[in-house]
Amino acid sequence: MTGARVALLGLDFGSTTSCAVAASATLARAAGTGRVELGALEERYRSEMALTPLAGDALDLDAAAALLDRWITEAGVEPGALFGGGAIITGLAARRRNADALAALIRARVGEALLAVAEDPCLESWVAFMGSAAPLSRARPGEPLINLDIGGGTTNLALGLAGEVLRTGCLLVGARHVALDPRSRRIVSLSPEAQAAFDHLGLRRGPGDALSQAEAEAVVAFHVELLEAAIAGRAEAFAAPAAARHVQVPFALPEGMAAPTLTFSGGVGELIYAGLGGRPLPEPAHHGDLGVDLARAILASPRLCARVATPASMGRATAYGLLRHATQLSGATLFLPRPERLPLRDLPILARLSPASADAEIDHAVDLFRRSPRGCCLEIALDDVTAPALRRLGGRLAGALRRAGPIPDHPLVLLTAQNAGKALGGYVTGWGALPVDLLVIDEVQARGARFVQLGRMRDQVLPVSFYGMTP
Question: pLDDT class for 317, splitting at 50, 70, 90?
Answer without folding.
Answer: low
